[in-house]
Amino acid sequence: MSERAGQRAKRSFFTYQDGVAVIMGLTFGTVLFDRGAIGFLSPFIVADLRLTNSQLGLAAAVISLTWALAGFLVGRASDAAGRRKPYLIAAVIAFSLCSAVSGLVGSFAMLVAVRLAMGLAEGPVPPLAATLLLGASDDHRRGLNMGIYAIFTGLVGGVLAPIVLVGLAGHFGWRTTFLLAGVPGLVLATAIALWVREVRPVTTAAAPQRPSRPLEILRVRNVALCAVIASLLLGCMAITMIFLPLYLVQDRRLSPLDMGLVMTALGAATLAASLILPTLSDRLGRKSVLVGFAGLGAILPLGCLYWTGGAMGLAAICAFAALPGTLPHVAIGIVPGESVHARDRGAALGLVMGCAELAGGFVTPSLVGLLADRAGLIMALEIGGGFAVAAALLSLGLQETAPRFTTRRASLQVALETS
């Protein structure tokens, strides 16, 4: 985008890049709405299908296998084609249909099979959506745009999901709820087709048209580090979203409605905080934000675990500890995308997300589910808290990528070389 165009964008109240951020946020939020349904509806599903904690953990986590594979493969295919939009539309339609089919399962095996298919459909959405958003963003407001994206992701996937899903399941049953959950995605596929424009990456002699190989991308320090950091952050979130609702109902004896309200408080506070950390990363740097706030994620699982009061106190803890919930947008959507050429963004984001899905989204919930069967749900929440602290420590090794800091560093280097 030219400097003049960027100035016009600043003067406008609602620009094209704002619209892309909103649509991409709603799209990814709908993915999280459908994906998180198994956690929010776990008390209903466990009772109907007679699942153990380990089966619930596996059913919730298995989606990460195909999610990770599809995210990288489709991301790389979109890099090679130089187009993201057609792949994104196809993925949104596919995961909407898979969500509807989830309401028809009658056994644990069928549930796992449908979740695997859903992962194939949903996996490409985050890297494609983030790549389209980065391509539409001015350099100085990538974090702000990612914050807008995160707000609408949180609105759908965090605030509306628990209260809507639990409310619908209470009135119509969990099967009908899954059928209804597929409708918003079809609406968003239409919005993407009508609104979003394809922005092809600029190539030069120094930045060839051929996308880099996966190992070349993984050799980039920030990409490799973000794969681990994102795995820890996602693992903490997966443990919390899958096992906290069950812990609140089974161990704390909350009603499903009170549990839904506690989880809604978490989603509402995350929504309110969604604009803060990505926007701060434009000014303070991506590394500083990750180092400074990742460790606070331990307050959520551990606070809910050791608070001895009622539902209102649990809701307050969730609200207080919600700020780090937006950090995966920085670790997956911004830092890797700024660490590679635009031509490789789909593959880079797909690699980081894929590693995070496998380690944090699949292995962690599966193993933690087994531990919960043996040692109880308390152990699961304690592990989640430890993951958040580890993510903060690893973030110390990142190289700063925020344009404000990289431009200053480049100017200083030029000055030193010419002095």
Describe this protein's structure.
- The two termini are 33 Å apart.
- Helix 15 runs parallel beside helix 19, helix 20 runs antiparallel to helix 21 and helix 21 packs antiparallel against helix 22.
- This protein has a single domain, classed as Up-down Bundle (Growth Hormone, Chain: A), CATH 1.20.1250.20.
- With 419 residues, it is mostly helical.
- It is globular, with a radius of gyration of 21 Å.
- It is 79% helix and 0% strand.
- It is built from 23 helices and no strands.
- The longest helix has 31 residues.
Topology:
Elements: H1 3-11, H2 16-35, H3 37-40, H4 42-49, H5 53-61, H6 63-81, H7 85-102, H8 108-122, H9 125-136, H10 142-172, H11 174-181, H12 183-195, H13 214-218, H14 221-250, H15 256-273, H16 276-284, H17 286-293, H18 299-306, H19 311-320, H20 327-339, H21 345-375, H22 377-394, H23 403-418
- Average residue pLDDT: 84
Seen as an oligomer or otherwise, the chain set is single chain
Largest sheet: none
> How much of the residues is beta strand, in percent?
under 5%
**Which stretches are poorly predicted, pLDDT < 50 over at least 5 residues?**
1-9
CATH domain topology: Growth Hormone, Chain: A
- Specify Rg, calculated over alpha carbons: 21 Å
CATH architecture: Up-down Bundle
Tally of DSSP helical segments: 23
CATH H level, superfamily name = MFS general substrate transporter like domains
CATH class: Mainly Alpha
Helix content: over 70%
- Domains (count): 1
Q: Between the first and last Cα atoms, what is the distance in angstroms? A: 33 Å
Name its key features.
419 residues; mainly alpha
